[in-house]
Amino acid sequence: MSKRELDKRKALLLSQIQQQRLDLSAGRRNWLEATDAYDRGWNTLLSLRSYALIASSVMAIWTVRHPSFLMRWARRGFGAWSAWRLIRNTIQQQYH
Predict the structure, then answer these.
(1) Cβ 78 vs Cβ 85: under 8 Å
(2) Cα–chain-centroid distance for residue 81?
(3) Per-residue pLDDT tens for 25-81?
(4) Which of 5, 9, 34, 71 could form a disulfide with 1, with the two C-beta atoms 3.0–4.6 Å apart?
(5) How far is 93 from 21, CA to CA, in rounded Å?
């Protein structure tokens, strides 16, 4: 290949690389716009992590002092979970 052909090939490759960079930049911007609500929610959840740690510590101390409270809420939680599974399975059977 001659020097001129190599220069043309190099210029073509450089322009393709530049276009790919622009496409990636636009795709990144679109992706960030689409996931913005999820990112804000995740950041909010992370900012509440210290409060959740304090609340779980207080709950642990409370349940040691009042074990019936824990058992009552465990039964309620299990009942709600069982009811949810029953409702979900009933709905799924109706539509299949």
Answers:
(1) no
(2) 23
(3) 999 999 999 999 999 999 998 999 999 899 989 988 988 888 888 889 899 999 999
(4) 5
(5) 50
